[in-house]
Automatic annotation (TrEMBL):
It is an enzyme of class 1 (oxidoreductase). GO terms for molecular function: ferredoxin-NADP+ reductase activity; nucleotide binding. Its EC number is 1.18.1.2. PROSITE patterns: FAD_FR. This is ferredoxin--NADP(+) reductase. Belongs to the ferredoxin--NADP reductase type 1 family. The gene is fpr. It comes from the Bacteria. Keywords: Nucleotide-binding, Oxidoreductase. Residues 15-148 form the FAD-binding FR-type domain. Gene3D superfamilies: Nucleotide-binding domain of ferredoxin-NADP reductase (FNR) module, Translation factors.
Length: 315
C-alpha cells in the first residue's frame, strides 16, 4: 500500500489519466466554487446546456470535514468521473462571451460533504484542487438539454435550483450572442444569498439588456424564516414564483404557451416529473413546476414527443 501511494507512482497515474489543467478556481464559499478547466486538446463545438465529464483519481487528497472513505488498493488506482453541465461567465471585460468561444470550460460545483449510501468521491477531491493542478476532462460534450427548439422571438424561461443555474448561464450567453428577440427570464432558488455566485454578472446583464430579467430567491435568510422580520417574504420557491404571478410580472405579459419555452434544472422535487399510469399523467407530491405549467397549457418533453417544458434533474 505504501509503495502504491509513493509520489513517483502517483505522478505516473496522473500522467497516464489526466488531460486537462485547472486555469482558475474561485471559492464562492467553503461549499461552492467556480472552476475553469483547459483541456490539452481543443474541445468540440457545443451548445449551451450540454455537459461533459470531470474526473480525478481516488489517490488524490480530499478536502477536510468530509465523510471518510475506506478504499482498497485496487480502488485507489481508479479515476472517479461525474457528468457536469458546462456553465459560462456570460461577460468578460464587460462584453458578452459564449462558452464555445473560449479555450477553457467553466463549471459551477457544490461540495457534497456526506452521502447516504457511500462517501462522496469526486467533489471532496475537486475542492482540494488549486490552480495549475491536473485532472481528467471528457473529450465528448453532449446532451439534449439545449435551445434547439427555440425560435428567435419565443420567450425563454430558465428556472433552476442551486448549481442547476450552470447550463442556463451558457444558454443565456448563447441567446444574447445571437440577439434573441423574445423575453428571457432566469430565476434561481438557493438557500442563502451567498449561494448566488453569478449575481453581479446577472445584474450587469440586466442593466445592458432590457429584454432580460433575473429573479434570485432564497429559502433560509432571516426574511424567509422570521415572520417578525420587517422584510418577511416567507420561503421563496419557484412554484410560488409562478403561481403568485411574479413570473408573468418578470415577462411583462401573460404566459403564452404557443411562444414560450421553459427550462428546468436542479432538484427533482422542484421539477416534478410525472409518470404515465394507464394513459394518465400522475404528478408527484409536493407539486412541482411541470404540473403547474401544464395546467397553464404548456407540455413537458416526452420520448418522441418534444414539448415546450424541458428539464434536467441533478440527482
Amino acid at each position: 500500500m505504501a509503495d502504491s501511494l509513493s509520489p513517483t507512482r502517483i505522478q505516473e497515474w496522473r500522467d497516464r489519466h489526466y488531460n486537462a489543467t485547472v486555469v482558475d478556481l474561485r471559492l464562492i464559499h467553503d461549499e461552492l466554487m467556480i472552476i475553469r478547466i483547459r483541456p490539452d486538446e481543443p474541445f468540440p463545438q457545443f451548445s449551451g446546456g450540454q455537459y461533459t465529464v470531470i474526473g480525478l483519481g481516488n489517490w488524490e487528497p480530499r478536502t477536510s470535514d468530509t465523510q471518510a472513505e475506506q478504499l482498497s488498493e485496487k480502488e485507489l488506482k481508479k479515476v472517479v468521473k461525474r457528468a457536469y453541465s458546462i456553465s459560462c461567465p456570460v461577460l468578460a471585460n464587460g462584453k458578452l462571451v459564449a462558452a464555445h468561444d473560449m479555450d477553457y470550460l467553466e463549471f459551477y460545483i457544490a461540495l457534497v460533504r456526506v452521502a447516504d449510501r457511500k462517501p462522496p468521491a469526486l467533489t471532496p477531491r475537486l475542492f482540494a484542487l488549486n490552480s495549475g493542478d491536473r485532472l481528467f476532462l471528457g473529450g465528448k460534450i453532449t446532451g439534449h438539454y439545449t435551445l434547439e427548439q427555440v425560435a428567435d422571438d419565443d420567450d425563454v424561461i430558465l428556472l433552476a435550483t442551486g448549481t442547476g443555474e450552470a447550463p442556463h448561464n451558457a444558454m443565456l450567453a448563447e441567446l444574447l450572442q445571437r440577439e434573441h428577440r423574445g423575453k428571457i427570464v432566469s430565476a434561481v432558488c438557493v438557500r442563502y444569498r451567498s449561494d448566488l455566485a453569478y449575481l453581479d454578472t446577472h445584474k450587469q446583464v440586466v442593466a445592458d439588456n432590457p429584454t432580460y430579467a433575473y429573479c434570485p430567491m432564497t429559502t433560509r435568510e432571516p426574511e424567509n424564516l422570521d415572520d417578525a422580520h420587517p422584510d418577511y417574504v416567507g420561503k421563496q420557491y419557484l412554484q410560488k414564483f409562478i403561481t403568485s404571478g411574479e413570473l408573468e410580472d418578470a415577462l411583462g405579459h401573460p404566459l403564452n404557451p404557443a411562444k414560450t419555452h421553459v427550462f428546468l434544472c436542479g432538484n427533482p422535487a422542484m421539477i416534478g416529473i410525472p409518470e404515465i399510469n394507464d394513459g394518465q399523467r400522475v404528478y408527484p407530491q409536493p407539486t412541482g413546476v411541470i404540473e403547474i405549467l401544464e395546467q397553464r397549457g404548456l407540455q413537458a418533453d416526452e420520448t418522441g414527443e418534444p414539448g415546450n417544458i424541458h428539464f434536467e434533474k441533478y440527482w
